[in-house]
């Protein structure tokens, strides 16, 4: 008899951003007069850079002629893109990386959700708290998270990141096998400085753990001193104990186009069933070539154009515009007397709710009184309670209007 995967039955409610969207839809129906402004989900609003559009047109034309038409591509990505990534994202920053260590995909969300398949169900998983929910939910669906206890999973190791520890996770009492780190952080918008990241790499090396490092927001780092790493592979030794996920979504406006990559250096190995070490990139290749047919050719050409001199200049301008929003949101919120974090090297601003209000309560208050959407911190984990997240990805006009509506609330 067919039976459902029991781990799905144990999942609480819907995916965070789906829950938010449902509440916003209901509000829109009841209050159609005041247009909703969303600074909730981190979706980009500025158009693709012109260099990307040109590359897309050219690639589309190539598909129109038999001589240049492309069918199935290599599952791991075309060499032209893997080479461009290795050169610009790694070697230009002094990190040795081979193009063959780079695996192109249609999104970091899928990669960070899928990679847990490579590990035994007995592996202990640690996540920073608050956390991007995909790491948690994908492990819960697989049966690695234990039981949902109301605000957390029984078998996950939570690494609180709060004002008390300056949003830098401490090493846990129980040693994990897999550690998810995301920096610049979603949702808090905070960063890990070089020493703190080096300490985590050292910890992983000492304990035989693997770090899954989500660097989807690295392009937003404004640091000129070089103290905030763009890649975990800037830390010596990380190439044996870390995997890195990067994306064109937020960097270059690809949330609708879809292109990302996961870097798994050849030196990363984990023990197999008989104890002999297996190269993780071989397992990932095996998985991807079985379950995935690769990111579309035209999209990979578009991603390649991000690295052209014009592409780089255009992307920098877009990011600067979002970061100007971030600065305005920060100062507007601070001006209202609320504590806020992030928004300096990241497009997210993490705000303490007023008067100890719960984060869903504050979300509902903003939505009902001002038609403004944020993301409730509690949706990101137990340490997110008492906070909400605003994104800087809105348009300049929406950001201005959102700040005006917030002021009118007189919190
Ligand atoms: C977010 O709002 O956290 C992001 O949009 C989520 C994502 O990139 O999937």
From TrEMBL:
<keyword id="KW-0808">Transferase</keyword>
<dbReference type="Pfam" id="PF00155">
    <property type="entry name" value="Aminotran_1_2"/>
</dbReference>
<dbReference type="InterPro" id="IPR004839">
    <property type="entry name" value="Aminotransferase_I/II_large"/>
</dbReference>
<feature type="domain" description="Aminotransferase class I/classII large">
    <location>
        <begin position="36"/>
        <end position="406"/>
    </location>
</feature>
<dbReference type="GO" id="GO:0010285">
    <property type="term" value="F:L,L-diaminopimelate aminotransferase activity"/>
</dbReference>
<dbReference type="GO" id="GO:0009089">
    <property type="term" value="P:lysine biosynthetic process via diaminopimelate"/>
</dbReference>
<protein>
    <recommendedName>
        <fullName>LL-diaminopimelate aminotransferase</fullName>
        <ecNumber>2.6.1.83</ecNumber>
    </recommendedName>
</protein>
<dbReference type="InterPro" id="IPR015421">
    <property type="entry name" value="PyrdxlP-dep_Trfase_major"/>
</dbReference>
<dbReference type="GO" id="GO:0030170">
    <property type="term" value="F:pyridoxal phosphate binding"/>
</dbReference>
<keyword id="KW-0663">Pyridoxal phosphate</keyword>
<keyword id="KW-0032">Aminotransferase</keyword>
<comment type="pathway">
    <text>Amino-acid biosynthesis; L-lysine biosynthesis via DAP pathway; LL-2,6-diaminopimelate from (S)-tetrahydrodipicolinate (aminotransferase route): step 1/1.</text>
</comment>
<dbReference type="InterPro" id="IPR015422">
    <property type="entry name" value="PyrdxlP-dep_Trfase_small"/>
</dbReference>
<dbReference type="InterPro" id="IPR015424">
    <property type="entry name" value="PyrdxlP-dep_Trfase"/>
</dbReference>
<dbReference type="InterPro" id="IPR019942">
    <property type="entry name" value="DapL/ALD1"/>
</dbReference>
């Amino acid at each position: 008899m067919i039976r459902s995967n029991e781990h799905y039955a144990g999942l609480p409610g819907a995916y965070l951003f789906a829950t938010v969207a449902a509440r916003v839809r209901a509000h829109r129906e009841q209050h159609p007069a005041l247009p909703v402004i969303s600074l909730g989900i981190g979706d980009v609003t500025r158009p693709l850079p012109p260099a990307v559009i040109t590359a897309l047109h050219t690639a589309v034309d190539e598909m129109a002629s038999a001589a240049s038409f492309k069918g199935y591509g290599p599952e791991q990505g075309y060499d032209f893109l893997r080479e461009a990534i290795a050169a610009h994202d790694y070697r230009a920053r002094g990190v040795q990386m081979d193009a063959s260590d780079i695996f192109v995909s249609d999104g970091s969300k899928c990669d960070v959700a899928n990679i847990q398949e490579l590990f035994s169900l007995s592996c202990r998983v640690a996540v920073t708290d608050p956390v991007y929910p995909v790491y948690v939910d994908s492990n819960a669906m697989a049966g690695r998270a234990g039981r949902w206890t109301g605000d957390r999973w029984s078998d996950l190791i939570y690494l609180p990141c709060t004002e008390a520890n300056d949003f830098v996770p401490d090493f846990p009492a129980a040693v994990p096998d897999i550690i998810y780190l995301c920096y610049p952080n979603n949702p808090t918008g905070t960063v890990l400085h070089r020493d703190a990241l080096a300490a985590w790499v050292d910890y992983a090396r000492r304990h035989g753990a693997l770090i899954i490092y989500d660097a989807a927001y690295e392009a937003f780092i404004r640091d000129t001193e070089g103290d905030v790493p763009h890649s975990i592979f800037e830390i010596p030794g990380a190439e044996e104990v870390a995997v890195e996920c990067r994306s064109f979504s937020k960097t270059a406006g690809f949330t609708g186009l879809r292109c990302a990559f996961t870097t798994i250096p050849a030196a990363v190995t984990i023990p197999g069933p008989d104890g002999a070490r297996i190269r993780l990139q071989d397992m990932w290749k095996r998985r991807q070539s079985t379950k995935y047919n690769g990111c579309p050719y035209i999209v990979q050409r578009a991603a390649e154009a991000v690295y052209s001199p014009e592409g780089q200049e255009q992307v920098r301008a877009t990011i600067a515009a979002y970061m100007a929003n971030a600065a305005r949101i920060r100062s507007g919120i601070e001006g209202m007397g609320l504590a806020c974090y992030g928004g300096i090297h990241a497009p997210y601003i993490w705000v303490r709710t007023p008067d100890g209000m719960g984060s869903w309560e504050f979300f509902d208050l903003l939505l009902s009184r001002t038609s403004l959407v944020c993301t409730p911190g509690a949706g990101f984990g137990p340490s997110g309670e008492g906070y909400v997240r605003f994104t800087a990805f809105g348009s300049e006009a929406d950001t201005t209007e959102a700040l005006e509506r917030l002021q009118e609330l007189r919190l």
